[in-house]
């Protein structure tokens, strides 16, 4: 399965608890798209969230985020790992 890193914007001042709630929303529906969200990171000063996931396609990852209420603005397939 491919790995992806996606970026969300507009999360200024978001708390750890709010990030956890958004991540849990993804986890509740990820299996319906064959996706697994592994981790999420937050930079509340820049208003950015970064999510690491694995799944069948970028589109599947994006669909989960959209359905959970926080669409990603960017997504990258991670093809090289060291």
Number of strands: 4
Order of helices and strands: EHEEHE
Secondary structure category: alpha+beta
What is the general shape?
globular
* Major beta-sheet overview: 4 strands, antiparallel
**Portion in beta strands:** 25-35%
Q: State the low-pLDDT regions, or none.
A: none
**Percent of residues in helical segments?**
25-40%
Strand order of the biggest β-sheet: 2-3-1-4
| Count of DSSP-assigned helices | 2
Mean pLDDT: 96
- Gyration radius from CA atoms, angstroms: 12 Å
**Spatial gap, N to C terminus:** 17 Å
Describe the protein in words:
It is a single chain. The protein is α+β, with helices and mostly antiparallel strands and 82 residues long. 30% of the residues lie in helices and 34% in strands. It contains 2 helices and 4 strands, in the order E-H-E-E-H-E. The chain has a 4-stranded antiparallel beta sheet with strand order 2-3-1-4. The model has no long low-confidence stretch (mean pLDDT 96).
Topology of helices and strands:
Elements: E1 2-8, H1 16-29, E2 36-43, E3 48-55, H2 58-68, E4 74-78
Antiparallel strand pairs: 1-3, 1-4, 2-3
Helix pairs in contact: 1-2
Key terms for this structure?
82 residues, alpha+beta, 4-stranded antiparallel beta sheet, 2 helices
Concise summary:
The protein is of the alpha+beta class and about 80 residues long.
